[in-house]
Amino acid sequence: MGMKMDRRGFIGAAGAAAATAAIGGPARAAAPLKVGFVYTGPIGDGGYTFQHNLGRLALDKALGTAVKTSFVENVAEGPDAERVIRQLAQAGNELIFTTSFGFMDQTIKVAKAFPKVHFEHATGYKRAPNVATYNARFYQGRQVQGQIAAMLSKSGKAGYIASFPIPEVVMGINAFTVAARKVNPKFVTKVIWVNTWYDPAKEADAAKALMDQGCDVMCQHTDSVAPLQAAQTRGIVGFGQSSDMSKAAPKACLTSTVDSWGPYYIRRAKEQIAGAWKSADTWGGMAAGMVTLGAYGPGMTADAKAAADKIVAEIKAHKLPAMVGPIKDRTGVVKIAAGAKAEDKDLLGMNWYVEGVEG
Amino acid sequence: MAWRIEPRAERSRALDLAAPALAVAATIVIGSLVFSALGYDGLGAAREIFLSPLADPQRWPDLGVKSAPLVLIAVGLSFGFRANVWNIGAEGQYVVGAIAGTGVALAAYDMAGYWILPAMLVAGALGGAAYAAIPALLRTRFKVSEILSSLMLSYVALQLLYFLVRGPWRDPQGYNFPQTRTFTDWETLPAVVPGTVLHLGVPIAFLAAFLAWIVLRATVLGFEVRVVGLAPAAARYAGFEADRTAWRTMLAGGAFAGLAGILEAAGPFGQLTPQFPQGYGYVAIIVAFLGRLHPLGIALAGIVMAVSYVGGETAQTTVGLPGAAAGVFQALMLFCLLAVDMATRYRLRRVAPAPSAAGARP
Questions:
Q1: Burial A273-303 (b: 16+ CB within 10 A, else e)
Q2: Which of A109, A129, B32, B261 is 20 to 30 Å from B125 by CA-CA measure?
Q3: Is A167 on the interface with B (CB under 8 A)?
Q4: Measured between alpha carbons, how far is A342 from A225 in angstroms, rounded to an integer?
Q5: Which fold has domain A30-136+261-284?
Q6: CB interface of B with A, residues 251-280, below 8 Å
Q7: How far is the C-alpha of B289 from the C-alpha of B235, rounded, in Å?
Q8: Sequence ranges of chain A with CATH classification 3.40.50.2300
Q9: Cβ contact (<8 Å) for A166 and B62?
Q10: Which ipTM was obtained for this model?
Q11: Which residue among B162, B177, B313 places its CB closest to the CB of A87?
């Protein structure tokens, strides 16, 4: 702010801020906006939480002294989360991002007690006047992965390390399998549930078990680099999750689905400062820049690269829905009629598996 | 010249009581040095982790809620630990207690009445005790180490929980998310101080610690537990059977852990989810020893541990400490306690080398 601020100027500014407050925005003078982040994993997980923290750092860089961010990492989902969120609200944060599905009820609960604080919950479905939700269309990355996996796999079997059977994860497994079976109708996805978002030892064990069963492409919906590293030691390939994992496993990593939260965090913080923040539901994908692909690894053939690029272009042009019927579930029942496509609400409530998913 | 570690002839009672306080003080000093060396504000870290939660009244309800399950489980474990019965599987008994109580809650979902909550608590305690009965039976009948069997059963309990929340007990209105229905008002612990998170389970836990103290001090059962642990031969002479003591202490430990489980489910959680087990059963082992296996000491130790959790979160936002720092401080506390214990029970003495050992390689 280049303006010189004397006492009267301050009062004037405060008056203007009070006027903003009267029409619904927060009162604000020159004090920085305090923004809090609650992370489910450690910021060094190299995956999901790492990317959220990159988003926070991007916010710091973009808005400079206009914001003051802080975070709490490795927060257990449940009462611990409620305590941490409340603590951030009490500490004067006016905008709080809770970045995991398991923080949903706790975010809603604390939001009720702090009606003037604005909350943003990632990947959930409960909103309130002061709680917005935001999410990325991760399944678009799965569409690309399915195509590549089916082209490169010799055994026709992919291993998939999954966290919790919530719609978010189920739709990823299905989108992957549907895309793969377009290339190879006999393609099979073998799933192991590890009941955690981040546990490198458990994730590596699951990867080994899947490779023992003949899977030669590794997919994961967990946050550590352990599955890819396990794949690399056995000389097979896989996909990075949330973050570009090519550095952690340069030979094994075909490409990664990268979450890019920075632009969203910057936009919402600017809206908050301008007094224009509103509760909303944001679900952005490749077209919005919230989901991108990481670098292609040495395991990618020229054909696979070309096919992947083509799919990305189609998704960005909104020409490639996640699933187009006819699509059957594992018992052979048609769930999506021929010609119909899975709508957002179908994806967000998905609780069945497509043909070809095992485990 | 050589050094020898030998037991002190007399143990000072004052030193015994001061040991945990010394351990906490040593933890603060060493911890702040370590984090200073790592480039953090070490003193600030120690202050945020150990003092700020106590100084801020807004944090007090959090301390109560976080310490309650630790205190309850640790008091239950202390009976066994005094009598050389090593129940390491309180985590499993905690989970099974929560499952048993939740079973009652789900069965009574459409009902109303003041009896529901007490019935859930009773079911929780019975569930925990029943689960502890397995390692007790294995130990007394087949001489299986309860350390291993109780620990391994914890993992079985987790799988049972995962199965239930994903299968038969899944919330029909929950968008397929693996969690039970949220409990009704009749099934939820009321707040002791309205408008705070301080639920009825917190006074119950501390009351249980107090009652346990009375039992250990003033009843034959308490005497039995102490004697069996300190002097097994004397205990046999007095007519106390080791097996019977093992049974009683295992069941008591299981019941306390089970009660803690259902209090946590009916309090802060309000339902069962896969994230329900948070390792309280293991942390309670540290709390039990930090509290000198004494119920009142355990109550204090539980609060100290809760302070380190809550303070660890504050320290992340105020001095930018990594999340793992609280864990480092907690582990450091246990190490310091063991070190101080060693120093109060043993002494280092200089001795002349034994002449017969000259030339012989050890």
A1: bebebeeeebebbbeeebbbbbbbbebbeee
A2: A109
A3: yes
A4: 31
A5: Rossmann fold (3.40.50)
A6: 264, 268-269, 273-276, 278
A7: 23
A8: 30-136+261-284, 139-258+291-358
A9: no
A10: 0.75
A11: B313
pLDDT of residue B353: 64
Dihedral, CA of residue B238, residue B241, residue B245 and residue B251, to nearest 10: -140
Torsion sign, CA atoms A91, A95, A101, A105: positive
Distance from CA of A22 to the nearest CA of B (A): 28
Q: Is B173 left (phi over 0), alpha (psi -120 to 50) or beta?
A: alpha
DSSP per-residue string spanning B163-219: HHHHTTT--TTSTT-S-PPPPPGGGSPPBSSTTSS-BTHHHHHHHHHHHHHHHHHHS
Q: Does B327 touch chain A (CB under 8 A)?
A: no
Residue A90 forms contact with B (CB below 8 Å): yes
Q: Given an 8 Å threshold on Cβ–Cβ distance, is A102 in contact with B316? A: no
Dihedral sign for Cα atoms in the order B143, B145, B150, B153:
negative
| Chain A partners within 8 Å of B278 (Cβ) | 76, 78, 80
Of A79, A125, A350, the CB nearest to B269: A79
CATH of A139-258+291-358, one of 3.90.700.10, 3.40.50.2300, 2.80.10.50, 3.30.70.420: 3.40.50.2300
- Is the pLDDT higher at A56 or at A289? A56
B149 touches chain A (CB under 8 A): no
> Looking at the complex, does the CB of residue A78 fall below 8 Å from at least one CB of chain B?
yes
How far apart are the C-alpha atoms of A152 and B28, rounded to whole Å? Answer: 55
pLDDT beyond 80 at B355: no
pLDDT at A212 over 80: yes
